[in-house]
Amino acid sequence: MFTHLGCYEFQVSRKYDKRSYYTFTPKPLRSLTDSVLPMDEQMITLLLQAHRLLGIIEGMSRHMPDVDTYINMLMKKEAHLSCQIDGINAPFYDVLDSSSKKSKNAVHIYNCVTAMKYAQEKTVSNQLICEVQRIVLRDNDCNNIGKFSETQIFLKPYVSSNIQEYNPTAPEDLELALDDLEKFITADNNIDILIKSALIHYQFETIHPFEEGNGRVGRILAMLILMQNKVLSKPVISLSYDLFHDKAEYFDRLSSTQRNGNYAQWVKFFIRAIIVAADNSVKQIESFIAIRNKNIEGRNPFKSTY
What we know:
Helix content: 55-70%
Number of domains: 1
Shape: globular
CATH class: Mainly Alpha
Number of strands: 5
Radius of gyration: 21 Å
CATH superfamily: Fido-like domain
Order of helices and strands: EEEEEHHHHHHHHHHH
Oligomer: single chain
Strand content: 5-15%
Strand order of the largest sheet: 1-2-5
CATH architecture: Orthogonal Bundle
Structural class: mainly alpha
């Protein structure tokens, strides 16, 4: 039995412990039309601003000295913030600690850094997404690591028959949903890549295909899309910077899109997050270069004091 609400098909014919529940399967991304994502003045302005900032960062990163040191630091900061969004907390100095003795949460954060380093030059596919999740969760005790879920996921500790309760896509529907996602990722569909990245992140989080780690993997996925499509050559922005500070709105925007199918409001929110992250990276790179130059000048024994 199928019924419709917002951008979903959800199915009533499911039972758990003698209770009925609904599972949400998002509409295929390839079925979206221009009317769903109108290129209004606000959307165009946001896209122009985001692309301008990303272009500036790309140029700066190509010419800045010691860029790998900066990127390594930024990836740790991104992983730290992404994990905090998922409720995994550790002091940042613990993440920076190079010793082998790290707290459990610091190890989880470091795993996200390792996953990004592993995946950043590979072609995005469902197989790569599974490999990323395996790295992100390699020190966790959960089952089925590196594989899509084979059992229904409930995000709340109880089973509700309330039609408004969100339960991720059912295991038997995952193959079709993920196949559509992969084809959308690889398709040459003339969609601006920032819009495409926003839609891919939304779709992945809505499908929620893993038993654990979906948030962290989904944010890595969004960055990989930007790099695969040559918007950035390296992970020189922290996408989670704004998403962490606007965590409540982040989840509310996802939920609102799930309920009413308003993709445009989600895409605009996501692009604003890219703008904030990109602007922050520009300032950080400028600060990084200024500090480095100051240190070099301080070590110069021939520097004039007059």
